[in-house]
Automatic annotation (TrEMBL):
Superkingdom of origin: Bacteria
A Pfam family: DUF434
PANTHER family to which the protein is assigned, alphabetical: DUF434 DOMAIN-CONTAINING PROTEIN, DUF5616 DOMAIN-CONTAINING PROTEIN
Upper taxonomic lineage: Bacteria, Pseudomonadati, Bacteroidota, Flavobacteriia, Flavobacteriales
Domain DUF434: 25-79
Protein name: DUF434 domain-containing protein
Domain DUF5616: residue ranges: 84-220
Length: 238
């Protein structure tokens, strides 16, 4: 499995998501939220907002990750659990989602705080997962969190069709054995549905998953906001 230097950041990101962009994003996100809450299709709403505010494709991807309708926000909020629910609990981790977000965080690339409180990034596996310099640090972070909060079990679920999923499975299993962690790793052809079907507390920032699982925990949000792990965050909050 080849290894890159870092995860997620592009040369123009400091301009696209800099201080001057924040006001534009705040207005654009407000408009997108309004349209989605009135049942406009996401495609049409994005097109309208992107045209009005002259957003680049990368900015559009970012604002899409931050947006939600009022109904969606209500659903997500109703399913969120707090840290005190995790002691002794079994968690299911959305494998690539969590791992890539942590790699992005530790690469100092931009994370985008959505209206639902979730942090998301602009990285994607495109059918192939490649390790980066921060992969080991990301897994060590989860292991430390697991021990510190006395979590019962973690079930990692990864997309089987993604190239190198077998290798990251082996890497996690080796760490689990070395550190005596009660972890298991599963490869699934339809990982999203498999995660939802577990009916356990889910760790993910994937919008579809957190809206459809039984309960979810905002792991990345907790690390940034409560444990104060340094992060490069783009948010429209003042």
């Amino acid at each position: 499995m080849s290894k890159q230097t870092n995860r997620g950041k592009e040369a123009k990101d400091d301009i696209s998501f800099g201080t001057e962009a924040r006001l534009t994003f705040k207005e654009a996100l407000s408009d997108l939220h309004y349209l989605l809450s009135r049942n406009y299709s996401e495609k049409n709403a994005l097109q309208a907002v992107g045209t009005r505010y002259k957003l680049t494709q990368r900015q559009l991807r970012a604002i899409q990750s931050m947006a939600a309708s009022e109904e969606q926000l209500t659903v997500v909020k109703s399913k969120a659990v707090t840290i005190d629910r995790l002691m002794g609990a079994d968690l299911v981790f959305d494998g690539f989602n969590v791992l890539i977000l942590l790699e992005t965080l530790f690469s100092n690339a931009y994370l985008f705080k959505g209206l639902d409180g979730c942090y998301r990034d602009l990285s994607s596996v495109h059918g192939t997962y490649k390790r980066v310099s921060q992969t080991t640090l990301a897994l060590d972070c989860v292991a430390s969190f697991y021990k510190r909060h006395k979590i019962g079990n973690i079930i990692w679920i990864f997309d089987k069709p993604v190239s190198n999923s077998g290798r990251i499975k082996k890497m996690i299993e080796e760490l689990s054995h070395k550190e005596n962690l009660n972890w298991s790793v599963i490869l699934e052809n339809n990982a999203d549905q498999a995660i939802i079907d577990q009916q356990k507390i889910t760790v993910s920032s994937d919008a579809y998953i957190i809206r459809n699982c039984s309960h979810w925990f905002n792991f990345i949000g907790y690390l940034i906001e409560q444990e104060k792990i340094p992060a490069t965050v783009f948010s429209v909050e003042s």
